[in-house]
Structures are given as structure tokens and as C-alpha cells.
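Why do we care about 3D structure at all? Because function follows from shape, and shape follows, mostly, from sequence. That is the central idea of this module. The next example makes it concrete: a single protein chain, its amino acid sequence, and then its structure expressed as C-alpha cells.
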Amino acid sequence: MSKSTVTAPFASIVLAASVALASTVTLTIDGCSANDTAEASIAQPAPPAPAEPPQPPPNKPQPDRSGLTRVGVASFYADRFAGREMADGAPMDPGGDNAASRTLPIGTTAKVTNIATGRSAVVKIRDRGPYARGRLLDLSPATAQAIGISRQKGIARVRVSPIAVPLPDGTVKPGAAAHDPEVAQLR
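And the structure:
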């Protein structure tokens, strides 16, 4: 075999490889510049949707300014709370008409009826509580006795009908018991 016959096939392979390499380099370089241009023309993703307004913690009840009647369990203040400052700044009076609610606004007056006895009293919400699970109101010991909640049992199922509910703007909203004729007799 002559030297020229070996060189010719080798030369054509080298030439083909060189052309392929040159094409690959050109395509890669062209591809990069083409992609750079293409990326610049792609629309940016839409900004994220605005977050929902923050919600209060799940265990923090919302104020109830509806004036609607509620039914639940009431208990009475323990003796150790006598004289302690309530949320409205007044001392807790065991013989007064004060009550505590987690949802009714401070200053709300309400008719509280013991469902078992049918006895009612008018209270003023002056404090926050009760913090025992499932309780709607804490009543002063005098009010609890007046509607038939004994110290032995300590709790009773009650109906709470607001009479007047103070609103944030300073006005007062009439509640479910605002026109109850019995309310005037209870005061």
C-alpha cells in the first residue's frame, strides 16, 4: 500500500471531523446568542397574588356585635376574683351585676336566663372570660344565685340576649332583648 492511499482516507476523515467540530462550535455559539435574545423577549412571570389579610389566631374569638341571642353555659366568678380589676377598670363586685364574656363588647348589657329555672337577670359585660372551654359567660356570685346557679353545681345552661351593644364608633345597637318588657322589671 502506498503512502498516498493511506493518507487520502485519513485526510477525508480528518476533514469531516474538522467540519463537524466547526459546525458544532458555530451552532453552540449561535445557540447561546440566540437563547440570550430569546430569554430577553420572554415575558417575566406575573407577580404573586397579594396575600390574604392576616387572620386572628383560631382560638381568639371575634367580637360579637350582632345583638343576637346566644345559648351556652354560664359559670360564676370564683371568690378569689372579688375586688380584682376587671377589663373595664372597675373592681369585681361579687354582689354586683357584672359579667365576663369573651365575645360581647365591654359595656354590653344583656338579659341572662337560666334555661332550667326560667329565672333571669340583667348584667353588664365588664370583663373578659371565661377561659374554661365551652363557657359563654362568667357571672358575679349574686347574679348566679339570682338565676338559680348553685355553688354546688357551679354551671348552668343559659340564654344570653343582649339589650344594648356598644359599637366601635360610639353608638349603641339595640340587641334582641331591647324591647323585652321583662327587662324593665329586672333592672
